[in-house]
Design a protein that fits this description.
single chain; alpha/beta; Isopropylmalate Dehydrogenase; Rossmann fold; two-stranded antiparallel sheet; 11 helices; 12 strands; about 20% strand; binds 1,4-dihydronicotinamide adenine dinucleotide; binds magnesium ion
């Protein structure tokens, strides 16, 4: 049995978490859950956004599944997601985007995985404000080590999963120094993987290519800000945030999470779509080498997604969150 830290989160978080737990238990997945919450819920009950008991659990288990968290609005509340990523050096943000039969999209054969650097660049938190001159300097700090880690993660993933191509995305024509560093590291690492094709694209052209001909991309690797924007763009290519998985992976720890928010407008109604969290949980099973369980659950999910009536309302069906989960369980 592998113990996993489970962060149910806020809003629809607990509902979609219950759905995933019931599917895992029906599939006899050999994991146990250690539940530790964060966010608005723990802030209201014990005055802490990231309780010490959660940190302890994460350090012990080193693998977590996380629902969406509401970061209270207002000065002094730093994003919990950003804090967790920086606290545990979860430098790879991995976001697969694949078309699914039955889910309405403009494209048929998208199957790509985006690797976004998750801790550096414009998200380093280095801002200098000159109140008198009304000027803000937002410093983008990028390190050689940071580039190496994310680019290597992308190539190693491509290698392990039989992917054919890695595309590095940058703005080296304008951001000369960071672009040159990122590209030189990428071409060095590419030499270690001669069986994987390597190319690069400038970010603006990449956006155009992605919405025109997304089938041409396989594994994509980029820096933090470009990756943040591209990852949601890629989700849009395959049905939106309700159906895509996400993971934050470091050397010591990995947190798998639904990338949508806590959906306060539908929270408590039992109608949220659990697909994004379930797909993140399937990625987690691959991470802990439970491949058979991952494939079984994925096959059942794909079957249900191909049959609209058995899905939740956002996918055009009539099922509640738990009915959707039951439908998946019936196909296991
Ligand atoms: P949101 O993703 O929560 O909602 C946007 C729209 O998508 C809403 O209409 C919602 O009902 C719908 N939606 C989202 N997930 C769904 C699902 N699983 N099934 C069916 N419909 C779904 O984004 P919003 O409204 O901008 O943010 C709400 C809260 O979530 C904020 O407090 C924000 O800080 C937080 N948030 C947390 C994230 C995380 O923890 N990873 C990511 C994004 C937002
Ligand atoms: Mg984002």
């Amino acid at each position: 049995m592998t113990q996993i830290t489970l962060i149910p989160g806020d809003g629809i978080g607990p509902e979609i978490t219950e759905a995933v737990k019931s599917i895992f238990s029906a599939a006899n997945v050999p994991v146990t859950w250690e539940e530790e919450n964060a966010g608005q819920t723990t802030f209201d009950s014990i005055g802490e956004l990231i309780p010490a008991s959660l940190i302890t659990s994460l350090k012990k288990n080193r693998v977590a599944l996380k629902g969406p968290i509401t970061t209270p609005v207002g000065k002094g509340f730093k994003s919990i997601n950003v804090q967790l990523r920086q606290m545990f050096d979860l430098y790879s943000n991995v976001r697969p985007a694949k078309t699914t039969k039955g889910v309405n999209t403009r494209f048929e054969n998208v199957d790509l995985v985006l690797f976004r650097e998750n801790t550096e660049g414009l998200y380093s938190g280095l801002e200098v404000v000159d109140e008198r001159l009304q000027i803000v300097d937002s410093i983008s700090r990028v390190t050689r080590t940071g580039c190496e880690k994310i680019i290597r993660a992308a190539f190693e993933y491509a290698d392990k999963h039989g992917r054919k191509k890695v595309t590095a995305v940058h703005k080296a024509n304008i951001l000369k120094s960071v672009g040159a560093m990122f590209l030189s590291i990428a071409s060095e690492i590419a030499k270690e993987f001669p069986h994987i094709q390597y190319d690069d694209k400038i970010i603006d052209n990449m956006c155009m290519q992605l919405v025109a001909k997304p089938e041409q991309f396989d594994v994509v690797v980029t820096t933090n800000l470009f990756g943040d924007i591209l990852s949601d763009l890629c989700a849009g290519l395959v049905g939106g945030l309700g159906v895509v998985a996400g993971a934050n992976i470091g050397k010591e720890m990995a947190i798998f999470e639904a990338v949508h928010g806590s959906a306060p407008d539908i929270a408590g109604k039992g109608i949220a779509n659990p697909t994004a969290l379930l797909r993140s949980a399937i990625m987690m099973l691959h991470h802990i080498d439970l491949k058979d369980e991952a494939n079984r659950i994925e096959a059942a999910l794909e079957t249900i997604l191909g049959n609209k009536e058995e899905c939740t309302g956002d996918l055009g069906g009539r099922a509640s969150t738990m009915e959707f989960a039951q439908n998946i369980i019936a196909k296991l």
